[in-house]
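Need tokens for this chain, all 453 residues.
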Amino acid sequence: MAEKQQRTLLIVEDDPALQKQMRWAFDGFETVLASDRESAIVQLRRHEPAVVTMDLGLPPAPDDVSEGFRLLGEIIALAPETKVIVLTGQHDRENAVKAVGMGAYDFFAKPFEPEMLELTIDRAFRMYDLQAENARLVAIQASPLSGLLTRDPGMLKICRTIEKLASASVTVALLGESGTGKEVLARALHVLSPRTAERFVAINCAAIPDTLLESELFGYEKGAFTGAVRQTLGKIETAHRGTLFLDEIGDLPLPLQAKLLRFLQERVIERIGGREEIPVDVRIVCATHRDLKAQIRAGLFREDLYYRLAEIVVDIPPLRERQGDAVLLAHAFVQRFSRENGRTGLGLGDDAVAAIESHPWPGNVRELENCLKRAVIMADGARIGADDLGLDAVEDDVEMLNLRQVRDEAERRAVLRVMARTNGNVARAAELLGISRPSLYDLINRFGLKKEN
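Here are the structure tokens for all 453 residues:
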């Protein structure tokens, strides 16, 4: 079996003894050494390391930090995605803060505990990988769904469903909380469909007063009412041969529900004040954050209209249920808003990542986007913290990122649950778990779950 490829770590240190110690302590990485600014730049160009540790005191004047800051600036300019961990003197907090302000990922005071520094290096690699993956996803422009960044299996399945439904002549209902990406999916249905050359027309049924909504949807003839000085086409007619997106369909008033149902059945409309039946060829996609079946039970939504609109229903999960998506999107938003506001090199701190992972995001992607936009503008340093996001800091449980510990904990819980269910019957428990009795005995011994006599 081939060895797992090691990650390249560049160590910039002029003390040969400390070089040797760090190379030995971090043997899990492919360590590359440099002892001054020029050799560090050569190694940076040659190996393109994801993470660099560097001493601020470098030759020709090791007691002066000017050469170290010059190197830091060059690394940030040449490889802005590289994570730089600066090593400083024990009481040199001022220069440490200055380094982070320039764009360093983190700092450590000498002398340092190798285990603690290695933990920070691991986190830096993890952050680099997250941002690299995010950049890769942002760069993919082959599909209109590329705007919907996700790694969540449920959302990826929804994307594949949208691709399948696009070419089918069915009415699709997109159900999900506000801010989950319903309009992105609706536009993808249109762009991927045979109607892509025609118009995509969207109307928010909750944003227009009931008295105006009918004319917005169906249009009106000249003189139909006071102020109707000319014939005006409605959204349905404007979308002829294209796609009509009815957002917040659950807020459509009952009288208009009846008129929309007639259109869906007959595929003809009458403008307000008109008598002519006008055929319209349009694909309907609707969306709502409301529970339409509960609306039906409450008498607020017509059941026959529901079944016309919901030939295919797509349930979109909220952001809090999409594993890893909040942080993935957060990195994308930071990159985007940093470019827009001229703040290159800005990134998320570990406390910000932990806070984003733990926050429930009731406003979903829209709330996250607004939160990151504000943070990019307001952040003082090169890293966005939990305070900049307006979120409470939480303890980042790095241990739970260890797959062995996660697997052991899952196995322990499963054994406990099954042993309780079978009242300690090992043969039956092994059968339910799908393992042999000796394997179950091994697990019981390993987790210290022996029955008390």
